[in-house]
Every structure is written in structure tokens, then in C-alpha cells.
Amino acid sequence: MTFISDIVTGAISFTAALSQQATNGASTWGTLSPPFAQPSFLTNNPLPDGYPWGSRTAENSAPDGYQKDVLLINGQFPGPLIEANWGDWIQVTLHNNIDNPKEGTSLHWHGLLQTLTPWYDGTPSVQQCPVAPGSSFTYLFKADLYGSSWYHSHYSSQYAGGLFGPMIIHGPKAIDTGYDFDVGPGMLSDWHHPDYFSIVEDTESTNKALWAVSSDNNLINGKMNFDCTTVNDGVPCVSNAGLSKFNFTTGKTHRLRLINTSAAALQRFSIDEHEMMVIANDFVPINPYNTTVVTLAVGQRADVLVTATGMGTGVYWIRSNISTYALSKNRDAVAAIYYDQASSSVKQSSIAWPYAEDGQCANVRLLLH
What we know:
Layout: H1 20-24, E1 59-61, E2 68-70, E3 82-85, E4 89-95, E5 108-109, E6 136-142, E7 147-152, E8 164-170, E9 181-191, H2 196-203, E10 217-220, E11 245-248, E12 253-260, E13 267-271, E14 276-281, E15 284-291, E16 294-296, E17 301-307, E18 315-322, E19 332-339
Parallel strand pairs: 3-8, 9-12, 11-19
Antiparallel strand pairs: 1-2, 4-6, 5-7, 7-8, 9-10, 12-17, 13-16, 13-18, 14-15, 14-17, 18-19
């Protein structure tokens, strides 16, 4: 029996060597000051001035310490949260400022049915033409389902280059699945150091040796460390760039919205010494079940409840591991849960759940409510 992660066989620094601006731009995902305290239902919509949308565009970034051009939304990676109530209409204006190379783009609202507005589904050459370089396009669609999801570019492989963000649609709570705090999205992303355009060129090459693409790292909410001593291409790289962090309150139950935003990776998610109750998959409430590991294929979501039963001064690992069914050079991502009485100087000492690949690239069998 192996453990869900082998990454902590060596020491991991809790002190980030890079600033949040250097790794993720204006995003605060993965910090102890998340951008939103999640309500159970919005009462101030429509949000003023299109908040949280603004006018900032792409820039150079280093989510894991390896510096590269990243597609940012309003200067952020991952992009800002879109949230609405079930039945609301959502309006988003996309300005295409992608450069070097200039190319079209689009945004897809993952999992929404778009029965009233199929032309706003965001799939180029199917429902719409790509938004041309330097042009703008306004999407208007109904939040026809509720739960946790994400939005992403549906043009080329742009979302593998950073063009994605979380989406939460608030709706009814099941009586038997109450919780105290909604801590928001946990985005799980394989990460490639070459730019996405080069990867596309390789997969379309006549050289078969280039077709199988391995990710270079695995991220949680856009952050993870990388061993920069392995870099030999001359690109600036800083080890121990920084890990994502979450707050837990002792004795309280927390809702975490897991989203597999990977380009190709099947992810296995766990929290050391804490069981999870899965209450929804994608936009579908399910009969809750308890587990220590949640499996998510690309694009899938799972809403889980976690009760903070650990020590009030504890720090525990969150882990997401790329399955052996996907190609990756660094499969293991970690983030840290800080309990309300934990000191930032405390080192993690939690124990991973035992787990072995089951020989199947599949989810667990589910029963619907």
C-alpha cells in the first residue's frame, strides 16, 4: 500500500520565496485572505461596476517559480470568481488583448445548459466565431443550474496557459448537509512550463515522439513549489515560490468546492487525517457519502464538507496527485490548512491517507438525490 503523496519525503518550505504578485498577479487565491467570504445567497447583485471585473490584461508570471508568459484575466491567475444566484442572468464582456502571438479567443461556462442562449456557450466554430484580436464580445446567459463550476477559454489550448477561473452559483441547501463556512474553490491544475502554443504545435507535428505531452508540475489554486535545480533551459526560476493556504475553524464544518481545471490530468484529492463528505458532483446534488480520496477527471467538480476535527494549533496538508493514467514529471501538489490557533511558524506534521491506484480511470459509483 502506498500513500496518497510521497512529496513530503523531503522538506517543504512554508516561507514563500516569491511574492503573490510574482506568482499569481493580482489574484488572492491560495492566500489566507481569499477574495470573497462566500455567502449562502447573494443579496447585493447585480454587482456594482461589473465587479470583480476590471481592465487589466496579461503579463509575465511564475505560479510555481518558473517564469513564463501566462494568460491572465484582469491581471489574475487563476481568474476572478464569477458568482450568481440560481436563475440570475450573468453578463460578461470579454476584451481580447492576447498578444505574441495574436489569436482569437472565447469563454465557455462549464456545465451550464445554455438552453435559452446556445450562441453564448463559448465554443468557437460551433456556437460562435472566435473573438478576434483587439475585439470585444459580451456574453449574456442564465444561471440555469446551481453549485460549483468554472469558466475557461475554449479556443486552442489557451486554458492550459492560464485562461480560466472559478464560478459559483448559489442555490438551495440540502437540510442534511449543513455547514458553517464556505471556503470557496479548490482548483486543481496540471501545469506546463512551455507555452501552450508550442505544445499545440508539438501535438500537430509529424514527429510522433512529440505527441505525448507531460505536465511539469501540479498546482492547487494556482500555486506550488518547483525544484529549480532541475531547470537547464536558462529560464529564470525560483525554488519554494509558495504554497496555497486555507483557514479552518476548530469544530466547524467547511464546504470546499473542488474543480479539476487540468488540461489532461486525472486528479486524486485528499486532506491528511480528515474525512470528506461529498455532497455534489458537477451541478448535481447526490446522496452524501464519506471518503478519504476524491477522484476528479478533467472538468469535473465535487463539493465536499470537512469538519475541523484536528488540533486547534495544527497545520495539515491538502494533497492533489496526478494519477498514473496521465503523463507528468511532478505529480504531487500540496497546500496547507491552518487551524484558527495555528502559528505561521508551525511546521506541518500530518499523516497522509494510504491509497493505491485501483486500475480504473473512473469515478466512484453515485446515487442521485
